From TrEMBL:
Membrane spanning residue stretches: none
Listed name of the protein: 3-hydroxybutyrate dehydrogenase
One Pfam family of this chain: adh_short_C2
PROSITE patterns: ADH_SHORT
Protein family: Belongs to the short-chain dehydrogenases/reductases (SDR) family.
Protein's organism: Halomonas colorata
Coiled-coil segments on the chain, per record: none
Keyword Oxidoreductase appears in the UniProt entry: yes
Length: 252
């Protein structure tokens, strides 16, 4: 048969990224997992993926990650921009360095990675850019100025990439999940519990699922399945769109 697709996935040492790496490996793709945390190596090894350690707030590291995929596998067909962090603080107190870190990691890195992967996708006349945005790319919550701004920006980048890639076989889409069961959310649950003097169950029910029609957290695997669809040949007509997997949050 034909050579398997090459996928570069960022933010892979836990949560959604780890689930995407595992799922892509199961589909037979060649996967480069990219993370600044060396724990990403064990996750990659267990799944059968290659690992490249990089701090994606560094523009050079973004380009090196793509170079590494090309060196190992000859190309990049699928780019999943997933690495992300959260910082909760009122605008009045929001540290400038945190703002810059979040914009660098969650908006500039996806641009730089897409830019570096683009010529390879163009040559193959086939490419998939999948940006893990958030329900916070559609609506805001107080205390999350940088995160909400980066994620809203990522939707704009997704739409632009879709328009530019349309005649080149390159699609670009965003996925917008509500709360997914990952370490990122576990930390928030613990913080909110302390802040609001609630137990963790109460935080989930009263804060995290307040706007949800489906009253449960999302599993990382559920997001990975949507990523896999958008990465597939079947999704060639699907581009420039934001795909909510948000428990009905934005339906109201
Ligand atoms: P997570 O904390 O489990 O994983 C994030 C990954 O990014 C980690 O592996 C971490 O090491 C990596 N990372 C952080 N900073 C990095 C850097 N500078 N360079 C390279 N890698 C770095 O979080 P998650 O919940 O799986 O989140 C993944 C993505 O999904 C994020 O973009 C997040 O905003 C988005 N998201 C998450 C949720 C949720 O509820 N968990 C909801 C909507 C969107």
């Amino acid at each position: 048969g034909s050579t398997p697709r090459v996928a570069l996935v960022t933010g892979t040492s836990s949560g959604i990224g780890a689930a995407v790496v595992k799922h892509f490996c199961e589909l037979g793709y060649q996967v480069l997992a990219v993370d600044f945390n060396s724990a990403g190596k064990e996750v990659a090894d267990a799944a059968g993926a290659a690992f490249f350690q990089a701090d994606l707030t560094d523009p050079l590291a973004c380009r090196e990650a793509v170079n590494d995929a090309v060196r190992r596998f000859g190309s990049v067909d699928i780019l999943v921009n997933n690495a992300g962090v959260q910082h909760v603080s009122a605008i009045e107190d929001f540290p400038e360095e945190k703002w810059r870190q979040i914009i660098d990691l969650m908006l500039t890195a996806p641009f730089l990675l897409a830019q570096a992967a683009w010529p390879h996708m163009r040559k193959a006349e086939w490419g998939r850019i999948i940006n893990i945005a958030s329900v916070h790319a559609q609506v805001a919550s107080p205390g999350k100025a940088a995160y909400v701004s980066a994620k809203h920006g990522l939707i704009g980048f997704t739409k632009t990439a879709a328009l530019e890639g349309g005649t080149q076989g390159i699609t670009a889409n965003a996925i917008c999940p509500a709360y997914v069961k990952t370490p990122l959310v576990d930390n928030q649950i613990a913080d909110q519990a302390k802040l609001n003097n609630m137990d963790e169950q109460e935080v989930v029910e009263k804060i995290m699922l307040k706007n949800a029609a489906v009253k449960r957290l999302i599993e990382p695997q559920e997001v990975a399945q949507m990523v896999a669809y958008l990465a597939s040949d079947a999704a060639g007509a699907v581009t420039g769109a934001s795909w909510n997997i948000d428990l009905g949050w934005t339906a109201q």
